[in-house]
Amino acid sequence: MDPLAPPSRLRRILTLILQITVLAGLGAGGYFGWKKYQKTSVKPPEYVTEPAQVLPLLIERTTATGTLQPLLTVQVGAQVSGRIVKLYANYNSQVHQSDLLAELDPTLYASQVAQARANLAQSRAVLQHAEAAQRSAQKTLARTQVLYAKQLATQADHDTAVAAVEMGRADIANAQANIVQGEASLALQETNLAYCKIYSPVDGVVLSRSVDVGQTVAASLQAPVLFSIAKDLGQMQVHANVDEADIGKLAEGMPASFTVDAFRGMVFQGVVSQLRLSPQIVSNVVTYDAVVDVQNVANRLKPGMTATVIFETAQRKGVLAVPNAALRWRPTADDNVEGDSAAGKKNDAKVQARGDSSGGQKSRKKGADITADLPTGATASDLTRLPPSRVYLVHGKSLVPVDVVVGVSDGKFTEVLSGNVHADDQVVVRRLEKADAGASSASKGGPPKGMPRRMF
Prior knowledge:
By secondary structure, the protein is α+β, with helices and mostly antiparallel strands. It has helices spanning 9-41, 107-149, 155-194, 324-328, 344-357, 367-373, 434-443, and strands at residues 46-51, 53-77, 82-87, 94-95, 100-104, 197-199, 204-209, 216-217, 225-243, 255-260, 268-282, 285-295, 306-323, 389-395, 398-409, 413-419, 426-432.
């Protein structure tokens, strides 16, 4: 057989099969090797932790916005219609009770008073006429009775004399009634005339004036408001809109502080005087009006200012607390969490054993302290009815969930009423992601992980 002759067809097929087999083996080996490398190179997740700690003082605060208003605002109006002829008060005028504020044109009401007096005088004259007629009728009756007794007068004459006396009495009663009516009408017209002068009902300051000289006011259906007077601006109130979720934490007599934009850096003090039951519903948001009494020192505060009010709803001393971020954080599917909610006792036992073996000084809430921190009217048995929260502690390469019952919060830390958490226990607040590691490397001056170092 010639060695230079081309290979046979069978030989070429066998060679191709062998090459394919070798390539497949190399590919499978590379794949499984890459998978094994991935398993060994993937690091377990890392977590950012913060310690639980005993705080010397934990203050829970509730914030609301409100409006400053005078303690008493009186709207002064006009009870009669007329044209304004004089004004004696303006904006910011200090007025006292019974001070003259404005005058209406009295011409029309003065003429009505004169007419009422004339009518009264006429009624009194009619009364005098009726009394004179009554006296004449009585004398006529007396003469008729004498003549009738001597049978010198007829029965008809006697009856006529008696009827004249009775009619005289009726005329007198009618005249007296007309006099009373005339006196009442005169008093009404004099009152209307007096209403042409508008006086201040209280001591205070004029906040607003709604009329000018020459303007006509019409008091037909309701009294038009001419002035608004605030009584004693040294005493003011803040009407704060408190959310329905926070209104249960407030009580009358509770101290409150607030700030206004006009005096930055200044904190004003007040006391909650009233929690009004009437709800205010705007866009399905329910709020309640909390009234805070304020001493307006030096009259710095003005009506209508917007105030940011802070209520101190609770104070706790020497309590165990955890960061709020630890209560909000929840693990994902790739986090290794030991046990489940049914294994709480087992997990708590692990944490207890680890805490006892650390040898450090631990602190936790006692049973007597818990009852002191419960809401008003609650007992220790109510702890079982309070909604539990959960925090996570790092135990080796896994997470240990711990159920806790929490109390008040200052926005950063939350009081722990019950649960197997001790002081200095590291609770998870978030998971350390790759972006965090890269940012940390960059902040140290080196290249992010996975990037080549500088060669020159």
